[in-house]
From TrEMBL:
<keyword id="KW-0333">Golgi apparatus</keyword>
<keyword id="KW-0812">Transmembrane</keyword>
<comment type="similarity">
    <text>Belongs to the PC-esterase family. TBL subfamily.</text>
</comment>
<dbReference type="Pfam" id="PF14416">
    <property type="entry name" value="PMR5N"/>
</dbReference>
<dbReference type="InterPro" id="IPR026057">
    <property type="entry name" value="TBL_C"/>
</dbReference>
<feature type="domain" description="Trichome birefringence-like N-terminal">
    <location>
        <begin position="83"/>
        <end position="135"/>
    </location>
</feature>
<dbReference type="InterPro" id="IPR029962">
    <property type="entry name" value="TBL"/>
</dbReference>
<dbReference type="GO" id="GO:0000139">
    <property type="term" value="C:Golgi membrane"/>
</dbReference>
<dbReference type="InterPro" id="IPR025846">
    <property type="entry name" value="TBL_N"/>
</dbReference>
<feature type="transmembrane region" description="Helical">
    <location>
        <begin position="6"/>
        <end position="27"/>
    </location>
</feature>
<dbReference type="Pfam" id="PF13839">
    <property type="entry name" value="PC-Esterase"/>
</dbReference>
<feature type="domain" description="Trichome birefringence-like C-terminal">
    <location>
        <begin position="139"/>
        <end position="405"/>
    </location>
</feature>
<keyword id="KW-0472">Membrane</keyword>
<dbReference type="GO" id="GO:0005794">
    <property type="term" value="C:Golgi apparatus"/>
</dbReference>
<keyword id="KW-1133">Transmembrane helix</keyword>
<protein>
    <submittedName>
        <fullName>Trichome birefringence</fullName>
    </submittedName>
</protein>
<keyword id="KW-0735">Signal-anchor</keyword>
Length: 413
């Protein structure tokens, strides 16, 4: 499978252009914070049947969440039957939970993820739901999620795929139409530090969902990625109650391809492989998590790599996924992603229990679910996006996995 991080740079360039344009507006917004009132309609849902899920922590040693099985022993005692929620298949929903929200109707979705608004007419990709072998995912309802999140802050931290996931989450929470609830959205950005921030506050239920854009997790100064220093923005999210990290795509290309220089201390590394650079950044990240995150208060998740599906070329040489209307039925290369092992190894070494949102394989089936050319106004129609996901779509299922893991953990306490 071809991979290209470069498409993410295309979007970054776009963001940068916006950033330059917005800068004057954004600067005075920085202190006062612009508030967009976005009244949304919400109702409560029927309680879905309890799932029987297995949530995974990659750390084989003791953790504070002792009743959650770790990788060494996935059959430890549970009150309910368990199953690996990441092993399963995509099934056509009976229409009750898919589409997760009406296509083109959720105002939180960026134009480049809103495939329906961008003219994609086949909607089969919105009708699939992830079905683990041997159990069901919990159905994410606003009522249950809001009850769980009351008084809390959830942060999605990482690159534009985290934004994809964040926007899906907001749409899932504001889907229902019976009761009007307010959502206050605050946006900030500082393009020069490659930093973006979006925060959605639900005042009626007193919780906040954030997206924090920090694709490397570590600090970036202009074109230099400082591998031994966490991004300053980490101060802003370290006290969140739930953090869902992600970082992968930006590490995939050699520095020569995208102009970044890796630096440790004052030393500049000219020939670091993506794998080594990623590994070093994860060391910085994991040491920081172990030292700064209070695991009693904060649940830490790491979402695994989100696969891309370019065929017939790279992102910039005619690679495409347009016209893919069916998922892959049999994966040839299961879980062969070069940075995956690096990530899993790093997570295993940590003293903080980090829960692994292992979405790579399940997402890898979904070659049908990328925006391709249906990504808003494009700079160049020939360049397709086969990396992000249309919404409604695959990230909705990631959030149902997250919800299931949160709920099952909550019940064990
Ligand atoms: C891990 O748990 C076992 C059994 O509960 C206990 O004997 C051991 O001391 C624990 N180890 C650590 C490092 O907490
Ligand atoms: C896993 O845990 C179960 C229940 O505690 C135990 O019976 C089983 O022997 C363990 N398996 C391994 C491989 O440790
Ligand atoms: C992640 O999920 C895939 C698919 O279920 C599985 O093959 C793989 O072993 C999982 N990885 C880990 C570390 O649990
Ligand atoms: C909202 O949540 C915060 C953080 O837990 C808490 O300090 C505050 O008292 C809550 N406000 C209300 C109105 O419940
Ligand atoms: C960690 O969080 C818990 C629960 O909020 C709190 O009781 C404890 O004091 C915190 N520990 C530290 C070291 O801040
Ligand atoms: C669009 O991109 C392709 C491939 O990079 C290039 O050949 C073509 O000239 C570009 N078209 C426009 C209008 O910029
Ligand atoms: C959508 O799915 C139906 C049922 O599987 C199929 O008949 C139809 O051809 C699909 N549409 C597209 C555009 O692939």
């Amino acid at each position: 499978m071809e991979f290209s991080k470069a498409i993410f740079q295309v979007f970054d360039l776009k963001t940068m252009i916006y950033g330059v344009i917005l800068l004057f507006i954004v600067i005075d917004v920085f202190s006062s914070t612009s508030i967009t009132k976005d009244p949304v309609t919400i109702q409560s849902n029927a309680i879905s049947s309890p799932p029987h899920s297995l949530a995974i922590i990659l750390k084989p040693s003791n953790t504070s969440f002792s009743s959650i099985p770790n990788l060494k022993n996935t059959t430890s005692v549970r009150k309910r039957p368990i199953c690996d929620i990441f092993q399963g298949r995509w099934v056509v929903d009976d229409g009750r939970s898919r589409p997760s929200y009406p296509p083109g109707k959720c105002s939180f979705i960026d134009f480049n993820f809103d495939c329906f608004k961008s003219g994609r007419v086949d909607l089969n990709y919105t009708m699939l739901r992830w079905k683990p072998n041997g159990c069901r995912l919990r159905r994410l309802t606003r009522r249950k999620m809001a009850r769980f999140l009351r008084g809390k802050r959830l942060a999605f931290v990482g690159d534009s795929l985290s934004k994809n996931e964040y926007q899906s989450f907001l749409c899932l929470l504001t889907n229902d139409a019976a009761k009007k609830k307010k959502v206050l959205v605050v946006k900030k950005s500082n393009v020069f530090q490659n930093f973006g921030f979006e925060s959605a506050n639900f005042p009626d239920d007193n919780f906040t969902v954030d997206f924090i854009r920090t694709p490397f997790l570590v600090q970036k100064f202009g074109g230099k990625v400082q591998l031994d220093m966490m991004a300053k923005v980490s101060e802003d999210y370290k006290n969140a109650d739930i953090i869902v990290f992600n970082s992968a795509h930006w590490w995939r290309h050699r520095i020569t391809n995208h102009g970044y220089i890796y630096q440790i201390g004052k030393h500049i590394y000219k020939h670091l492989s993506p794998k080594t650079a990623f590994k070093k950044s994860l060391r910085t990240w994991s040491k920081w998590v172990d030292a700064n995150i209070n695991a009693t208060r904060t649940q830490v998740f790491f979402r695994s790599f989100s696969p891309v599906h370019y065929s017939g070329g790279q992102w910039n040489s005619g690679g495409n996924c347009r016209g893919e209307n069916f998922p892959i039925t049999k994966l040839k290369e299961r879980g062969k992603f070069e940075l995956q092992e690096t990530l899993e190894t790093a997570l295993r070494k940590m003293s903080t229990p980090v829960r692994y949102l292992n979405v790579t394989t399940m997402s890898n089936y979904r070659k049908d679910a990328h925006p391709s050319i249906f990504r808003g106004k494009t700079v160049n129609e020939t360049i397709q996006d086969c990396g992000h996901w249309c919404l409604p779509g695959v990230p909705d299922s990631w959030n149902e996995l997250l919800f299931t893991m949160l709920m099952d953990h909550g019940q064990q306490k």
